[in-house]
Amino acid sequence: MAGEDIIGAVYQAVLDGEEDAAGKATTAAMEAGLDPMRVLNEGGAKAIRLVGERFANFEIYLPELMLSADAMKAMMNVLLPVLKRQGTPQSRKGRILIGTVAGDVHDIGKNLVSALLAANGFEVVDVGVNVPSNRFLDEADKVQADILALSALMSTSAYYQEEIIKYLVDSRQREKYFVVVGGGPVTPEWARQIGADGYGRTAQDAVKLCEELMRLKRSQSKPEQTLVFA
Amino acid sequence: MISILDILERAHNGPVCKVKDWDSKVVPKAIAEKLKKYGLTRTCDPAQPIATDDDLLDRYFQAGYELAHEVGMLCQDTERIVQVSEKELQQSLMNARSQITLGRGLDQVTMYSRRPEDSIKPLYQSPLAIAADEDIWSRLLEGIASNRLIDVLETPSLITAYGQKVLANTPLETLVGSLEVAKRDEVLRKVSRPGMPTVGIQSSTTYHAQLGAFNVGNTFTDVALVLSPFELKTSYSALHKAVQALNAGGLIRSGTPSMIGGYAGPPEGAAVANIASTLLQFPVHSAAFAAGSMMDLRYNGNCGREGLWALGTSTQALARNTNVVISKIVESVCGPGTEAFLYELAAGHIVLTVSGASASTGPRSAGGKVINHLTPLECWYSAAVFKAAAGMTREQGNEILEQLIPKYEKLLPHPPLGGSFQELFDVEKLQPKPEWEAMVGNVTRELAQMGLKVEM
Ligand code: B12
Description:
The complex is a heterodimer of chains A (230) and B (456).
Chain A: H1 3-16, H2 19-31, H3 36-56, H4 62-86, E1 95-100, H5 108-119, E2 123-126, H6 133-143, E3 147-151, H7 155-170, E4 178-182, H8 188-193, E5 198-200, H9 203-218, E6 227-229
Parallel strand pairs in A: 1-2, 1-3, 3-4, 4-5, 5-6
Helix pairs in contact in A: 1-2, 1-3, 1-4, 2-4, 3-4, 4-5, 5-9, 6-7
Chain B: H1 4-13, H2 19-37, H3 54-71, E1 73-75, E2 80-82, H4 86-95, E3 99-102, E4 109-112, E5 123-126, E6 131-132, H5 134-145, E7 152-153, E8 157-158, E9 160-161, E10 164-165, H6 171-190, E11 199-200, H7 208-213, E12 223-227, E13 233-234, H8 236-247, E14 251-255, E15 258-260, H9 267-285, E16 289-292, E17 294-296, H10 305-321, E18 326-329, H11 339-355, E19 359-361, H12 376-388, H13 394-404, H14 421-424, E20 425-426, E21 431-432, H15 434-450
Parallel strand pairs in B: 1-13, 5-7, 5-19, 6-8, 11-12, 12-14, 14-16, 15-17, 16-18, 18-19
Antiparallel strand pairs in B: 1-2, 3-4, 9-10, 20-21
Bound molecules: cobalamin (B12).
Cobalamin sits between chains A (103-110, 112-113, 149-151, 153-156, 180-185, 200, 202-203, 206, 209) and B (128-131, 157, 202, 204-206, 225, 227-230, 257, 295, 297, 300, 364, 367-369).
């Protein structure tokens, strides 16, 4: 297959939300010696932009978005090690650990945020719902997350967003991760009060927020105060 | 007849399916097939939020009914499918009550299975579990319960117990359940409605509060609230509540919401999913009556045109084709003290009454998201509008909606959140502050001009 065709196959697999096909096509592209950045930009990223637009226009819905995000992840799983070997600097958008906090089973908002982040090229590790604080912290450590994204839909579970940040402070690890919060009853005031690094009102805001935080991280700085995207 | 034990057995041993596959593949695919098979694709007409084509409504019912017994519900804790055969579904629908009497003495009320355009008045259950501070919680509830337009009493959520934060999943939840019941019962005595029917446990984010406080000791709560996740899913938390309610002699109101733009896809898909999930509440959760809600992912409510359409269509399809008692929710997003909120509530409740809902729980003041943004006035107002619309035809309903919807639809993505109980009410006198009262007065007069006479 010619380079164009292989990239076309990656594009199509991500567009159609075919996880296996995306992984295979990307592997084929690497075997053919294609430039990983080209595969990313002309293949997956191009497709996912279209998916994002279609979702915003309600031509497709959450399931299609989730499947395309998974296909995008499959592509990234192949590309990342190659990019790392080549030392391509702009390759890392950031690794985000996301989940809904303890006692809370609301998952649609979290899934939407998770899919849009993945669609925008972040490495997303989704730990699900009703996640106890200690598990969040263990997982964050394990996957070496840049950002912890905590979703809470109830006032009684939002307390756990506070608990996690407090634990990080008390165990002198606050500098390790950026912590961002969101979900229905979570407000910018709450985010500031608990010392979160950022608050996003919608899934689109969550993407902008994480992009901004990663920009700061790359310039080795951090937000002066809680960043609010609403 | 299927029993809760059969359901527990299936939740443990049924066919395996990953939650993610269920959400992103199994359910969307099954819904898409039904839409195609019954010619439902693109039948949502935003210009006519209350559908009037009976043949179409009956095809929606068929699609939802088939989806229910062909797909079933996934237990998300075990990742196993709880399947229900067509025969079992039929039997449990046949056994379901077409009227339910709740409460005692002068406060007793009866909820009826209704038809679209029915003149029987539906019942109003209020409020939703919106978080309120402990110090004003009782006063707020007193204001709501004191008005006889409110038939069934639910409660705001307590987020502290004796001043301590109620963290989800901890023993404080078990404690807050009994605190809620005690405080609620005290309010009932204070407003002299000791026999008013109640629904609990509201402050319970998990099942702990219910296990700790539903009909425990000398207390009595009429109805247990059993909710489970989108789309066509159940959980051990929901089943815990169901088992406990059955053992404790309570009736179950259970429901699973549907979401436009979510796993069910377009408004048409969400309507079909909602019909299926409403039907499955009877065999799976032993529901005495079903609850159901419709949301639109774009703004987290259901008072936009597609949201109202899907809410009404699923309600009408069920009301035309079953004798079960169904309760639904108007998912408003604006807050108390704003006109947009009152228009949203009017639009939503007209749709529900005209479509044949037996009851509604609400209101969802400020989308239910802001602590203390709930006042008794919008509870009374919603109940009054809901009842006033009984007997209205679908065409009349659509005419009024045509005047109401343009007044708020543009605000839905960034809704005004309004004010709190303390800001809009005189907490001492338990009276609305003049501006808020006047605003409601003006909107009721506008509604009267549109042909809906609301008596409060
Ligand atoms: C659907 C729903 C349910 C479903 C959940 C289904 C599911 N699988 O998710 C069911 C029926 C199971 C349910 C149960 C309960 N619920 Co509920 N539920 C809702 C409802 C109606 C919609 C939530 C939703 O899915 N929205 C859609 C998504 C897209 O929006 P979202 O989650 O807010 O996410 C968006 C943003 O917030 C943001 N975002 C989300 N997460 C994150 C994270 C980060 C890091 C960032 C940056 C952004 C971000 O991006 C998303 C996309 O734009 C809300 C009311 C509401 N209007 O929100 C109540 C609500 C959240 N529930 C509530 C309650 C009380 C309960 C129950 C306790 C009810 C009861 N008494 O049993 C139980 C608790 C269950 C539990 N243990 O978790 C309350 C919470 C009140 C409060 N302030 O504490 C609410 C607000 C309802 C109310 N009272 O009006 N619920």
